[in-house]
Amino acid sequence: MNHLQNALHAALQERDKHHTRRHLTPMMRQGERLIHQGRALIDVTSNDYLGLAHHPLLRHRAAEWAERYGTGARASRLVSGTLPLHTELEAKLAAFKKSEAALLFASGWQANASLLPALNQLSLRQMGHPALFFMDKLNHASLHQGCLAAGVRQIRFRHNDLTHLETLLHRHASQPGLKFIITESVFSMDGDRADIAALRALAKRYEAFLYVDEAHATAVLGPEGRGLTQGMADITMSTASKALGGMGAFVTGSRALCDYLLNHASGFIYSTALPPACLGALDAALELVPHLEHERYHLQKQADRLRSHLQDAGWDTGASSTHIIPIMIGESHTALQIAHALEARGFLSVAIRPPTVPPGTARLRIALTSQLSASMIDQLGEALLSSLRSHAA
To answer: Where is the Aminotransferase class I/classII large domain (predicted)?
Structure first.
């Protein structure tokens, strides 16, 4: 065994020691259930919040566009990969988000990780100084990666702590360079929300720009599922891979922003364009989402119901106010045991452990969908409480 293999095995053993090693678990889908090792499980861990990944209109249009236009776009957007489908869909996405323009990316990770270096480059070239990125401490890993790729040190503020953010903005007010406040609107591991209006006010006061990751809010929250930014953000990143039921991501903002990004965002420039099937699914989702008010109401109502059930029994669900409900456990080993116990009771969830979340904050992350009935939520609540009582100290 050579030095590389020794190093790899040592790194994996370290993960095993701390109960943080990840594994892939292939599963078959059957409606809202998953089939794992011959057992049917109710999925309470996916991001398919409105159940659109199996909607017949999305499936039909994805298949239709693949049949008509082929399985791949064949090239990057700036070579020969831009189909009329791409530009037409971007116009629809801009209208959906009520912005001037939109630009498609392959994934939310790719968009965030390549936008921040592009924005830093803009600041360096036009202002003569690097950008200042004021980052919520619990932002998604792709945003932290974007800062690393940009080669700048992020200025972190405590999670959703606007007083701390203002202190930092004031401290750096005279520092040159473009300033960006960067947040998620719904935080993926905690299920809580940013105060977008207050962030907008701070951005205006300190001549900063607001960048919001709307991955877990788009299609689920806001009027007609348009998200929480409601025109208050300068830059919005949304994904098609969660409540929109498909794959891909899109940035919305001004026409100048999107034109700049297609010239400077490396993830856009050097990636093959999204294939027709993905575009078809997203196109169909945009037709459906504005009319799914009942599904959004049902999802929020059931989330409130489950959260209250857990809190009444004394369990900590953090500041969650959305369809994402963390149950704070603490130790990784215990969180894994509870997840296994819940699976034995017919529900699939996942133990979220460091480094995805801070040390000592391992949790069960419950992600609900509008497909879950009230009776299923009651069953889930009982299964959760039984599993928690059996394994948590």
So the answer is: 41-384
Q: Is 48 a catalytic residue?
A: no
**Residue 1 in this model has a pLDDT that exceeds 80:** no
C-alpha torsion sign, points 210, 216, 220, 225: positive
Strand partners, 352: 363
Check if 216 is active-site. Answer: yes
- Choosing from 86, 97, 179, 242, the catalytic residue is 242
Could you say which of 188, 238, 241, 370 is catalytic?
A: 188
* Rounded-to-integer distance, Cα 289 and Cα 297, Å: 13
Six token digits for residue 46: 């996916």
At residue 392, the pLDDT reads 61
Name the helix (H) or strand (E) containing 171: helix 162-171
Tally of residues, the chain: 393
In the numeric block, which tokens belong to residue 376? 């299923």
Question: CA of 115: how far to CAs of 7, 12, 159, 185, 380, in Å?
Answer: 33, 32, 22, 17, 39
pLDDT, residue 393, reads 54
Burial class (CB in 10 A: 0-12, 13-18, 19+), 211: buried
Look-up: residue for tokens 């202002």? 127
Residues 6+ away with beta carbon under 8 Å from 198? 162
**Whole-angstrom Cα distance, residue 150 to residue 118?**
8
Show Cβ contacts of residue 10 under 8 Å, excluding neighbours closer than 6 positions.
none
Joined together, the tokens standing for residue 194 give 């940013």
C-beta neighbour count of 318 within 10 angstroms: 18
Non-local (6+) Cβ contacts of 78 within 8 A are: 262, 269
Q: Residue type for 229, please?
A: T
Q: What is the mean pLDDT of residues 140-164?
A: 96
Catalytic site includes residue 195 = no
CA end-to-end span of the chain = 42
User: Closest Cα to residue 290, out of 86, 92, 105, 32?
Assistant: 92
Residue 100 annotated among the catalytic residues of the structure? no
Query: What would the pLDDT profile of 107-128 be if each residue is shown by its tens digit?
Result: 999 999 999 999 999 999 999 9
Report which DSSP code applies to 173.
T
Q: What residues contact 79, with CB distance under 8 A and at least 6 apart?
A: none
Q: Taking the CA atoms of 11, 13, 16 and 17 in sequence, report the sign of the dihedral they define.
A: negative
